[in-house]
């Protein structure tokens, strides 16, 4: 099988590369081992006709105008600002922690300055910051750490906050103002007809051929490509020669409620301290769909299963670096996306990385 470009994986990384090279006249073969395009952003109508995200809630947000412009060629958008509540001792509080959270939780009526002083009073100063526990205690002190962060982290990662790199908790902001939006990016919107429809448009090009249910392992010696773009797991590409790169997995339990218009007040409710699941997302908040029933998903963290989150510890980074050395030496093959780069990437970051790589290679072919 001859092609200019072989793209392994039809998620954001693979779809952007495929579209860019096809638009520059190259023949592109896209393979994916799943039965659909879209990678983890894949959405579909469930049996009741509600648009759901099979692999958990995906909310698009970006500060990169070129990413927004690029994707806007393939979709209209519906403005959506995600809001999350956290269930603590039977009450729902806004997260990220902000002025409203503090006032509601401790029955106070502080203004911004008062909340800043509150944090200053309760924080436990930590230097140096060596792990995620140090970050949280340093920012908000022990009570908020134990109510909102510690148990959620243990469920999500199977590790204590103190065992995780500072980057994990560092991603979660703490605000002194009353902004209760989960993200603060300039552009926050959902593809109006869903992600899958957007991917269909990206890949709808006469130079692109798509083969689903096709694992790279089974075709790697059969495809004759000038360049390969691989967005699958890096350790699998090298036959796990240094051992497995650890991932945290999730199982998703979807449920539909007929004749119930709304299940919960916002898109996502976190359950840091109760139940085995970490959070529940109700899709109609995200998509704006009208329907007499509603559909939700519960997320249960797992040790085994599909790879979702690279586990961010220093040992795992060292293992990744061993694989990366092999990847850098592989001529004609480029490793891109969250699995091949073993890092947590938001969707817009993957799009930006794929646009950058394709523009470098297309303007400067080797
Ligand atoms: P993927 O989407 O995973 O695509 C990789 C593709 O490669 C897959 O389709 C896979 O089947 C295929 N593949 C793997 N191995 C092989 C093989 N051997 N042969 C053939 N095909 C193969 N980001 C946000 O910006 N906002 C969010 O709200 C958000 N929510 C998330 C929620 C969850 C639960 C998770 C896990 C992630 C979330 N993300 C979110 C991150 C988002 O999923 C990623 O940024 C995005 O999916 C990365 O795209 P990708 O192309 O790198 O990987």
Automatic annotation (TrEMBL):
Endpoints of the signal sequence: none
Question: Its GO CC terms?
Answer: cytosol
Which GO molecular-function terms appear in the entry? Answer: flavin adenine dinucleotide binding; GDP-dissociation inhibitor activity; UDP-galactopyranose mutase activity
Give one Pfam family: GLF
Could you tell me the keywords of this UniProt record? FAD, Flavoprotein, Isomerase
Under the heading InterPro entries, the entry gives:
GDP_dissociation_inhibitor (IPR018203), UDP-GALP_mutase (IPR004379), UDP-GalPyranose_mutase_C (IPR015899)
What positions does the domain UDP-galactopyranose mutase C-terminal occupy?
147-344
Which cofactor is recorded for it? FAD
EC top class, as a word: isomerase
Taxonomy, superkingdom: Bacteria
Documented EC number(s): 5.4.99.9
User: Which PANTHER family does the record associate with it?
Assistant: UDP-GALACTOPYRANOSE MUTASE
Q: Which family does it belong to?
A: Belongs to the UDP-galactopyranose/dTDP-fucopyranose mutase family.
User: What is the protein's given name?
Assistant: UDP-galactopyranose mutase
Q: Which organism encodes this protein?
A: Tunturiibacter psychrotolerans
């Amino acid at each position: 099988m001859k092609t200019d470009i072989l793209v392994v994986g039809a998620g954001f990384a693979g779809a952007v590369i495929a579209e860019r090279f096809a638009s520059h006249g190259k023949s592109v073969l896209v393979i994916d081992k799943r039965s659909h395009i879209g990678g983890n952003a894949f959405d579909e109508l469930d049996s009741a006709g509600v648009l759901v995200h099979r692999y958990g809630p995906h909310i698009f947000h970006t500060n990169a105008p070129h990413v927004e412009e690029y994707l806007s060629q393939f979709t209209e958008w519906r403005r959506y600002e995600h809001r999350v509540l956290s269930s603590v001792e039977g009450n729902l509080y806004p997260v990220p922690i902000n002025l409203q959270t503090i006032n509601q939780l401790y029955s106070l009526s502080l203004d911004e300055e008062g909340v800043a002083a509150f944090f200053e009073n309760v924080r436990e100063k930590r230097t140096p910051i060596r792990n995620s526990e140090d970050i949280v205690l340093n920012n908000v002190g022990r009570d908020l750490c134990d109510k909102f962060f510690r148990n959620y982290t243990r469920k999500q990662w199977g590790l204590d906050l103190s065992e995780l790199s500072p980057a994990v908790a560092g991603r979660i902001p703490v605000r002194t103002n009353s902004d209760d939006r989960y993200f603060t990016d300039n552009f926050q919107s959902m593809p109006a007809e869903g992600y899958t429809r957007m991917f269909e448009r990206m890949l709808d090009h006469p130079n692109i051929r798509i083969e689903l249910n096709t694992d790279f392992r089974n075709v790697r010696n059969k495809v004759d490509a000038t360049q390969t773009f691989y967005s699958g797991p890096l350790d699998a590409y090298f036959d796990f020669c240094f051992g497995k790169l650890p991932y945290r997995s999730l199982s998703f339990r979807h449920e539909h409620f007929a004749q119930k218009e709304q299940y919960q007040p916002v898109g996502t409710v976190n359950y840091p301290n109760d139940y085995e699941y970490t959070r529940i997302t109700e899709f109609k908040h995200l998509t704006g769909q009208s329907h007499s029933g509603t559909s939700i998903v519960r997320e249960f963290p797992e040790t085994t299963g599909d790879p979702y989150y690279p586990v961010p510890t220093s040992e795992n980074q060292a293992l990744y670096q061993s694989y990366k050395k092999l990847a850098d030496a592989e001529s004609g093959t480029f490793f891109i996306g969250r699995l091949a780069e073993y890092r947590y990437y938001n969707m817009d970051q993957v799009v930006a990385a794929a646009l950058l790589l394709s523009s470098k290679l297309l303007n400067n072919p080797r």
